[in-house]
Design goal:
Elements (H helix, E strand, L loop, with lengths): L1 H25 L2 H19 L1 H12 L2 H16 L16 H14 L12 H13 L4 H34 L12
Helix pairs in contact: 4-5, 4-7, 5-7
Length: 183
């Protein structure tokens, strides 16, 4: 009987932990993401969607802009997870690669810009504590992590381009290379 009681308590505790996490998010990340969405959509309306689409189309034509500059700007200005929203301005063909590069960049820039992905800062700080114990500066590590991340995220995005093309051929589909934003 004790086993069944413990099992039931564990089951309820699982949902209680989920509810506590949800309430914590409602007081932290959810309002932040909501405000960033409002700010981004306001900026888009002020600049004009057609202009944004033209900039995105030009960015999409250059892999360096697509997988280095755009993820960096998105991460720095919008932080994670909002940086992924910039993918809406890219053609379908390049969205998988942008998301690959952007998702990685949210981690590799954490050491120098902790606001980008504060939930994952513990990874960088764990590595940095070992560097500190060796008497080495953390700033050097953070900058190297950022620079290597920029290059590797670009490579990851570009490799995903090839993977996407392979899957297109395999599945006999053709993804658009033109920006198409639905209202």
């Amino acid at each position: 009987m004790d086993f069944i009681v413990k099992l039931a308590e564990g089951f309820i505790n699982l949902f209680q932990t989920g509810a506590d996490t949800f309430i914590d998010w409602m007081g932290s990340i959810v309002p932040l993401v909501l405000m960033l969405l409002i700010a981004m959509n306001t900026l888009i309306q002020l600049i004009g969607e057609n202009r944004i689409n033209k900039i995105a189309q030009k960015s999409a034509g250059n892999p360096l802009l697509r997988y280095m500059v755009l993820p960096f700007l998105g991460s720095f200005m919008l932080a994670n997870p909002m940086l992924h929203s910039l993918g809406r301005f890219l053609p379908e063909k390049y969205k998988p690669s942008y998301f690959a590069a952007a998702g990685q960049f949210a981690h590799t820039s954490n050491g120098i810009f902790p606001h980008i992905n504060p939930a994952e800062l513990f990874i960088f700080l764990g590595i940095a504590s070992g560097i500190q114990q060796l008497g080495l500066p953390m700033t050097d590590l953070a900058i190297r992590y950022l620079l290597v991340g920029l290059v590797m995220n670009f490579v990851g995005g570009w490799v995903t381009d090839f993977t996407t093309s392979y899957v297109e051929k395999q599945q006999k589909v053709k993804l658009s290379k033109k920006v198409n934003i639905e209202g």
